[in-house]
Amino acid sequence: MSGTDISKKIFIITILIFAVLTTTYAFTYNLQLSNFLGLEQANTLNDVERLQNVVYAEQRYLDKMVQDWSCWDDTYRFIDDRNQEYINVNLQNQTLAGLKVNVMLFVNETGSLVYSKSIDINTEKEKPVPEELIKLVESGKLSTKTEHDVIRGYVLLDENPIYISCHPILTTRYEGPVKGTLIFGRYFDSDLLYYFKESVSSSILMYRADEGMPSDLQERFQNFSEFPDRAIVKPLSEEIIAGYFGLMDISGQPALIMRTDFSRDLYLNSKKTLDNMYFFLILTGLVTGIGVKFALDNFFVSRLIEIDNFVTRVRSEKDLSRRLDLKDNDELYRLSREINGMLNEIELTEHEIKRQEREKKVLLDSLNEIVIFINPEHNLVWANKAALEYMHMDLEKARGIHLKDTPGMDDLLIQHLPLEEIFASGNKESEEFTLEDGNSWFVQATPVIDDNGRIIGVLETFRDITERKEIERLFQEKQVAEIANRTKSEFLANMSHELRTPLNSIIGFSDLLYEQAFGELNEKQLKYAGNISRSGKHLLNLINAILDLSKVEAGKLELEYKDFELTNKLSMIKNLLSPIADRKNITIEIDVDKGLTTVRADESRFVQVMYNLLDNAIKFSYENSPVKIEAKKKGDMVEVTVKDHGIGIKAEDQCKLFKPFSQVDPFLSKSSQGTGLGLSLVKQIVHLHGGYVWFRSVQEEGSTFAFAIPINGYIKSGK
């Protein structure tokens, strides 16, 4: 190697470095310029959104005003009687001007116009109602149908666009039926545009959908229907950037496009600064590169050539007695000294490597785990003593055999890990698995990498963990059982003594107060005492339900069997719930087979099951609908069904039934009292009787819940 060759290479490297730096500068320049463009876009978008907020504030104001006026008993009556006093008091020109309402239309429930008025807000003078609005009213497009129906948006009148808001006319309590529609309108005229301009301190332009798409947006959108309602920003020139957003008509289509322009001072100043900075950096890099090239040629190249020639001679002659001698106490001098020391240590290192290989072999052969090393072609390179015994062969015969052909090794044990992926990714992988014989194994594959970062093989270890897995399983089962038993015991004890006892006192004393046992109470005191009693009883029922469920799960709930008249018991439950059913005008029907008289079961638990099912049926039934209870004999079982004509249960919610603390509809859980324990207790109690539960439900048509228990009782012993 000559000095000229190294000098040329240094020159090429210098050129490449300069080229890389120049490219990096150019990339960074474009990136910074892009960041400034993004900053400009974000800043402009914020300004446009300020204009949007001002426009939307005016719309919300009009929406709020029409809602307040439409939900007013006087307005509700005005649709029927059209009394002049309402007009004289509330519909004066000054009133509409103060409300900033240009147009006010009253439409009855049939869609007919009852009263209309239009004024100029600035002069407070009355003017004709636009014919286009009258036609829209007559077409029914501005009429609301339900209590929650609201219509709002822009209408492109010939004179000016107008924003209208339509709200159903209800009572002051927001109750129906809908008496008609109240319509407020505000012209989107030059005065309002001037107000918007002053609010955001920027120029404002407005384009109508019936006049065609503006030329500066035609290249991006073909027509108005494609224009979004969110704000967009578009540079128009080097000096101007514009922001746009759409305003929708009553059908949800774009009616207007608002445009506001801003100067691009931020972008232009930033671009000029970047130009100056990157020109200076490129010039600095060029001068630095020339200086580095000159210094390397004069101070390092000649000495590096001498070191290279020495190393070449040592390698070709294999003469480790040679020594490199360089002057000057610098990095190259220290490099030559390290080369001399390296030559002295090579032989010692070779002997040390051989010794370590022998020690590793002894260590790996002493392991009980199976250890094998395979190359990238999946051929076996080395195996420890345990692996060779497993394969029933020695190392010389095993070396070079393909992994899939190794004798005595189960295919699953060898091929369980994806070796191709391990060689490709270089990631360490491990996994536990169980073979068909029931033994569990832990396998781990570790890639072996050389000094160049290349994967030269994979070291696999296999360990039999059958005994350990069995111990872990037994230990986990023991822990789960102990925790579950302890939790249930603590729950039963705490709930029984800490909650039920004080609740009984609260209920008892509140009942005494309500009965005025200690003296007369006023109306408010009686009401509060009754509320305390009812709330306490509801909470006590909840606690009892939780305790019952806990006892069932703990196997501590015992049934007390006795004979009772089925018809009488069903009638008693009907009488208990009749007051609740009467509130919704629900009739409860009972149909019992003539052959069914006496049933043997736990009477109190039977009442609890029927009470829960009938209470649910009443709770979720429509008003003025029947709830039917049927009891019939099925072999040795009595089957009782409760059928309602109510809201039913969605198919996707039916899986939640009979689960503790689960209700099928979050909305109903708020509007109807319940904890989700009732059906769970029903299922558990019926199962304790040796019976079963089933249900059938169709949304909006109703539900049928049924259970069956043995007529003559169920005894666990089988006697």
From TrEMBL:
Q: Where in the cell is it found?
A: Cell membrane
Record-listed E.C. numbers: 2.7.13.3
Q: Which reaction does it catalyse?
A: ATP + protein L-histidine = ADP + protein N-phospho-L-histidine
**Predominant place of localization:** membrane
Q: Name one GO cellular component term.
A: plasma membrane
Every HAMP domain range: 298-351
> Which residue stretches, if any, does this entry annotate as coiled coil?
339-366
* Spans traversing the lipid bilayer: 277-296
Which superkingdom heads the taxonomic lineage of this protein's source? Answer: Archaea
Q: Which residues form the Histidine kinase domain?
A: 494-713
Report domain PAC positions: 426-477
Query: What would you give as a GO molecular function for this chain, any one?
Result: phosphorelay sensor kinase activity
This protein's name? histidine kinase
